[in-house]
Amino acid sequence: MASTEARLLDLGSLESVRRFAAGLSDRHSELDMLVNNAGISGGPRRETSDGFEAHLGVNYLGHSPSPACSCPPCSPCSHGQVPG
């Protein structure tokens, strides 16, 4: 049976990304799709909680597949694809 789950994640915090990934591992043995849909543009210069410039941290580092997709549910499987 198909299901959908929406979860909150702070892409400006790599610790939040790690907790999100750990939560996926705890709740799911397999994941067919993960949609990361967020970004920031313009505004005053800010930094993430990790000290990165906010645009770089949120738009690029926070979406990085390495911290979020190193958990087993996000590993490539025979019936799906992980975009590269």
Task: Characterise the protein shown here.
With 84 residues, the chain is mainly alpha-helical. Helix content is 31%, strand content 0%.
How much helicity do the residues have? 25-40%
Largest sheet: none
Overall pLDDT level: 77
Shape: elongated
Number of strands: 0
**What share of residues are in beta strands?**
under 5%
The topology string of helices and strands comes to HHH
Total domain units: 1
Task: Provide the descriptors you would attach to this structure in a database record.
84 residues, mainly alpha, 3 helices, 31% helix, elongated
Write the layout of secondary structure elements.
Layout: H1 14-27, H2 54-61, H3 65-68
Can I get a quick summary?
The protein has 84 residues and is mainly alpha-helical. The chain contains 3 helices and no strands.
